[in-house]
Amino acid sequence: MGSTQAMEQVDHVDVLIVGAGPAGLMMATWMAQCGVKTRIVDKRGTKIFNGQADGLQCRTLEIFDSFGFAHRAWIESNHMLEICFWNPDETGQIRRSGRIPDTIPGISRFQQVVLHQGRIERFFLDAIESVSPIRVERGVLPTSIDLDESLTEDSQAYPITIKLRHLSEEEATPTQVATSANGAVAQDGLFRSNLAPDDTADLLKKAELNAKANTTEVVKAKYVLGADGAHSWVRKQLGFSLEGETTDYIWGVLDIVPITDFPDIRMRCAIHSASSGSIMVIPRENKLVRLYIQMTTTENIGEASSRVDRCQITPELILKSAQKIMAPYTLTYRKLDWWTAYQIGQRVGDHFSAEERIFLAGDAVHTHSPKAGQGMNVSMQDAYNLGWKVASVVKGISNRSILKTYEQERSKIAHDLIKFDHKFSRLFSGRPAKDVMDEEGISLTEFKEAFEKGNMFASGTAVDYEASIIVAKPPEDPDEQNGMVTKSSCKTTPAVQSKQHLAANVKIGMRIPSVKVISQADARPWHFQELLRSNGTWRVVLFAGDIAIPERRREMFSLSECLAGSKSFLCRFTPPKAKYDSVIEVLTVHAGSRTDYTIFDFPEVLRPYDELDGWDYHKIFADNDSYHEGNGHLYENFGIDPRTGCVVVLRPDQYVSYVGPVDDYKSLDAFFASFMVEQIS
Amino acid sequence: MGSTQAMEQVDHVDVLIVGAGPAGLMMATWMAQCGVKTRIVDKRGTKIFNGQADGLQCRTLEIFDSFGFAHRAWIESNHMLEICFWNPDETGQIRRSGRIPDTIPGISRFQQVVLHQGRIERFFLDAIESVSPIRVERGVLPTSIDLDESLTEDSQAYPITIKLRHLSEEEATPTQVATSANGAVAQDGLFRSNLAPDDTADLLKKAELNAKANTTEVVKAKYVLGADGAHSWVRKQLGFSLEGETTDYIWGVLDIVPITDFPDIRMRCAIHSASSGSIMVIPRENKLVRLYIQMTTTENIGEASSRVDRCQITPELILKSAQKIMAPYTLTYRKLDWWTAYQIGQRVGDHFSAEERIFLAGDAVHTHSPKAGQGMNVSMQDAYNLGWKVASVVKGISNRSILKTYEQERSKIAHDLIKFDHKFSRLFSGRPAKDVMDEEGISLTEFKEAFEKGNMFASGTAVDYEASIIVAKPPEDPDEQNGMVTKSSCKTTPAVQSKQHLAANVKIGMRIPSVKVISQADARPWHFQELLRSNGTWRVVLFAGDIAIPERRREMFSLSECLAGSKSFLCRFTPPKAKYDSVIEVLTVHAGSRTDYTIFDFPEVLRPYDELDGWDYHKIFADNDSYHEGNGHLYENFGIDPRTGCVVVLRPDQYVSYVGPVDDYKSLDAFFASFMVEQIS
């Protein structure tokens, strides 16, 4: 670890992010939304423009929507609707043997789509720039990092010192890009034909790099995120390692505009040939198709633990393998957008943070094979889990105890991912069974079942965080953990008890599901999740029930009286001059008939008054028919009895913290008091 | 009319557009999409940033979607779902007397929304810039226009000569804007708080105006569009006039963030007070509400035909009128975004074009009161009707005969609009009836009925163009025209006969309705209209029926053989080096089961081959269940029998030209041959 020089300029920031890939940009987006002073640096000279990761889970799209840009991904991406399985028939020729939906119907308002990483980075960059002064600093490399452990618990301190070096343009241009243009070396290292119009500014900016070239500076930070990829410099500085294994299987990847008579080329396909290996087909945007192709001919290059020399693999070689697997169908191309080759392996970091001051996210703490389309999603979701917690602590809203939940929650996900990928890759790389007696081969049934089960995991909606200070559910039975490693050191315990049965399908620890509700004030239908923008705000959702029932109305007014009190948690934890809903927002969804009420029939704290803007018209909703978009039947879908109602607490990342009865104000107060900081008026 | 000077620089363009409001920008968007050499000038120094027209019809959103930006309007706008009627009760106090949906359920995939004109202009500008070099030239005023009538039928000639003067910044800044900031004079004439981030560049560009100030230039154009508003300079140069009347009724408009206990302020409301006049409430984006307020106190200013001195009206005066009408509910505000006052009048131009070379669109040919929210929509739709026709003629695809349909089609719409507005305004400005015996008053029933009927008109989906060379239906019975004036001189006659009964709900002359269909190649659901992008292309839609029926399959192959022939209309009218679908695109929707077929089961002409891109995967669709978005039941909804099928021809603007049997290739050929130009190979 390095030290600072007295003569250098020292900059102070709340958060420094190393790496501007999807994980780093997700973190920066949170910081931008929450107004946290942040810098983000990346050693590359420009963003990437093609290739690399491409699958977007339903859950990732839900998250994008909470930041306001899911529609951009939805419009530009290719939507994957169906998976087709192709297997050898009794004569050995491949035939379609089954179809399943790619996304399980009903689990999300989005379905899995494919769009290359460059566009996704563009959306993040635009989202960051539209609300904050944060800009990615490219061609900037950290050269030393130093954590003063005596200051880790001091909320005012800047315990981390990082030295940054500004690279020259030559240093900042990665060689990876230079092999991507039509399989030949591209002279300028960039792939102009693939640039969307709004990327042009980034190319121009690149010219500015050299002004600061070879200068250094010192940054003091409260928190650092290492989102710097599989070869993470931050991880290495911390002395942490990745644990896991690498296999013999080598796969090639081609992004091409295919010319083929294979009829399902625009479907996601899993093709198992009798003896030439497997292909996964991922149809993409702009007529492209990505093919993951098993390179049986190169299976034995290198040792299990060694890296394969990728120079031996060419697009021509990969194409030949593909042609063998897909025969008798023909396959060729005139347009090649990108290609690569990789060896399957799965590894997870032993630590996700140093003292909850320096964190790791994404490939820096877990790597695996790309075929499952999970890597970018899980990486972004690491940072999505972390960002609001760091912002809340930096802003003095929450105490540092919530930061422990990052490793607790994400380490388990990383292990789940590795396990999923291990199983999936084995099934995919294995030879198909010849018949039921062929025990070494993979049976079609086994494969299809794994795929169907995998789809739930792959959607990202199955994530279920364990009990903690911010997840008020009983600690998990160790027997149910399926051997997942969760360090007891990072466990925290909830201060209150939930009553899960009051909202049976709003699972504590999982993201809240979504159906449509109708705004009381203007009859507009909203997907419930659309109300839960990622802006750092906690939500207390009052499911008031059928307010035609006097008891429901009475409890609603009685809870509201507590909420409106000057010693309520709303008041105690909201800074004196901040807006009434900036820390905890109260939303109401009732099950009465919308047209029987106006917002003035509800207690004032549920539709607060602002002297410039008047009454707040957008806090109260009804579970009713809409004119044009059907009826979400929220109470039924969420498993809430309209005769009872309940209160649900949602984290800023839409995960469910607590479910309890309407008349239990005390638990709500105790829940927030267990980690929030009282604000002095 | 002026003359050119030999010394000045002469620029040649295909199209010159005068006026960069919504009508002018719609025209420019078409030209950009179709690659037509175009200039667009506006005398104002910047685009507008707030106020003015704001309602967007369903049909306008469908059109925006065909250009790729409906989602921007949909996201940013306020959605209007419900209309509430408020009327005096027996004691004279206003009470809610009824509710209806604002958009009739089922008529469109969009519903009426509200967003101010400045944002809509932004979307057009972005859409134009993303595909073409066309840029709005601001602070530019035409000073003379000259049409050489000897050249009007010469397709190579530039018969129009226009002289343009570049204004100084002072001249280019309209005084209208200077009264809009909180009702006081804004020092810089602009309302910065209301600017969206992406408008900043326009402000900066304003500084460039002075460089060309006070210079003049001469432009030679093939076609000119006067989209220069109610005081149209182009119209005056042509010597055309607006015919109609102005009434005594004066209305004030306030765009405010209301502070009120009126419970329906976020609904569209029609409030009739007993004796203080009426208010229409239009809830808007950014917490704004627009109030149209009857200024009964100033009803008698000026004579019927004279213009009222608006200086006598202030926001305070308008607010006071509003408070009287809404009593006992309170109304005040702290934020005023914009205000104006106007006198109701309706006028329509006597000509829509000079020699089908110089056209008028929008307010330049029809003006009326703004309350119905129609003006901007009908204006944009004028240009939407005209743009593809002009582009097609300029590009040598169609002959000039199609240009006559502009006046034929849009003059009728303008008269319909005036009639609608006249009735609507009278109902709205009149005193409510005290009881059934009160014949002078407006009865609630009459009003509500007019509103419901008006909603169909107001959606824009009821537009029904008459028979012409491009609308193959029987000429309309004069008795059914309700006295609408349509000059016989601009009528043209279809060359072929449709068989409307083959697709009973795909009405010839109306825009095609939309439900979801599933793409054969990738199972993705699309709204049928989403396939019909506004790019200048005609569509022949083969509703092939249930292709499990041998006769359906036989007819599909037999039609395809004709289409694929070297003398087919596809070949004759497509320029030799143009893409196969650039003039006429063939789409197929079958009623068989998607999973029983692949695209290779369909004739090649229905999924053409390109040597770079391979087969076209996006031309064949099925009327089937989707995994996540239901079933559109297209055949049922469109009134097509799957045992019969049919062929539908759609204009580039999504209006239905022709419906006929699958086995009648000859009519298709005759239809296109009646106005298209054979291309020489």
Automatic annotation (TrEMBL), chains A, B:
SUPFAM superfamilies: FAD-linked reductases, C-terminal domain, FAD/NAD(P)-binding domain, Thioredoxin-like
Source organism per UniProt: Pleurostoma richardsiae
Name of the protein in question: Phenol 2-monooxygenase
Domain Phenol hydroxylase-like C-terminal dimerisation: 463-679
CDD domains listed in its UniProt record: PHOX_C (cd02979)
Gene3D superfamilies per UniProt: 3.40.30.20, D-Amino Acid Oxidase, subunit A, domain 2, FAD/NAD(P)-binding domain
MF (Gene Ontology): FAD binding; oxidoreductase activity, acting on paired donors, with incorporation or reduction of molecular oxygen, NAD(P)H as one donor, and incorporation of one atom of oxygen
Superkingdom of the source species: Eukaryota
Family membership: Belongs to the PheA/TfdB FAD monooxygenase family.
Coiled coil regions, renumbered to chain: none
Keywords from the named record: FAD, Flavoprotein, Oxidoreductase
